[in-house]
Amino acid sequence: MNQGGWTCPRDVEGVCDIIKKECDPGHKGCVLYGKVKFASEESPSNEAFEKRMERKMREMMEEKE
Length: 65
Ligand code: SF4
What we know:
Layout: E1 2-3, E2 6-7, E3 11-12, E4 15-16, H1 44-64
Antiparallel strand pairs: 1-2, 3-4
This protein binds iron/sulfur cluster.
């Protein structure tokens, strides 16, 4: 993947060396899964991202108490 000036170090000529398939950014197994919110609403990363953010917010609120 090479979009927006970022090249994934796991991308080997279009094949992901983690999932051993064609690079599919944001899908399970991808380093971006749950860490990035994609413009495409269909990306499975988005739900995981939202859950992660909610968990972080909860942890921050609990620390303040
Ligand atoms: S699927 Fe994700 S981890 Fe794998 S090469 Fe693509 S961007 Fe990198």
